[in-house]
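Review form for a predicted model. The reviewer records the input and the model, then writes brief findings.
Reviewer: anonymous (R2)
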Amino acid sequence: MILITGGAGFVGRHLCAYLAARGGDRVRVLSRHPEWVYEDARHTLAVASRTVDRMGETGTVDPDQIAAARERIERGTPMLQDFVDPLPGDIADVPVLVEAMRGVDAVVHTVAIIRETEGRTFAATNVAGTENVVAAMHEAGVRRFLAIGVMGSVDDERQPYSRSRWLAENVVADSGLDHTVVKPSLVLGHGDAFSKRVISALDFSKPIVTLPNGGKTKFQPIWIGDLVRVLASILENPDAIGRKFEIGGPDQITFSQIAGRFAAILGKRRAFIPVPSQLLVPGAVVLAKLSRDPPVTRTELRELEHDNVTDLDSIQRQFGFAPLALSEYLPDYLSAMTR
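Model under review:
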């Protein structure tokens, strides 16, 4: 049995669908919104299907296993309901975590916030939440721990989000558990938060869209199907214990280029104006006071001052397969998100 904390979120839902398609260990999900775990099953299973098909094309996986996975995917949502057990709960509640870990062999920790809201801070969710998971694992006697981090986490108080992720990684490293940390660059796919933000910005800012940090921040987008394939591989590989993996896709691309591709695919004609981040800070501060969900926050403007890239062959070299290029998946999922 595998427990996924935050399993009803973007990464969690896709990981559930992929693990269910492959069969094997059942999955238990702990989430504040467990009913969301089956939400968007049509798209998460479509990603799982494409990932399975790509594995079959390599000839390195038993064809019978591929065929069985395809049959499971064809069953749709009922298959997910048979394979995934959703539980209501919050990582702030250690006794609930301990109970959720009964009979579990491994924990995949996906919970983190990228924006602070009333009652949910970086310290409470990203850091203390990870500490709670570690404490519960020790109490429940679970050893295997796979934590999702982020590329670019750093001990810099001027970057409170990145620092919270750095502190959380240290909690994992010092946990005494059989741990692995995966640090992806920008993860894209149907339903991801970054794409929703860019689409919203294109709709909100007409006809001019400002680009923080001059639009020059570099990312190395990774398709969600490739990320969950990496995660499943790590769970099966004892040699991954005690290691950190920085991963990204085969493209290094600036924020300006990403925004341009989004606009072109969605048929939105916009003029993009590069602007230094510091000039946008006053507006971000005002918008944060006027809106519960502003287009950008002061913290995010600081984060955008730093590139988010690693080796171009990071997945091929460490996990033995070639990840999809951005052009191979971006049009399909963007079109589906905006229908």
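Findings: Residues 97 and 167 are 21 Å apart (CA to CA).
Further findings: The two ends are 36 Å apart (CA to CA).
Recommendation: see findings above.
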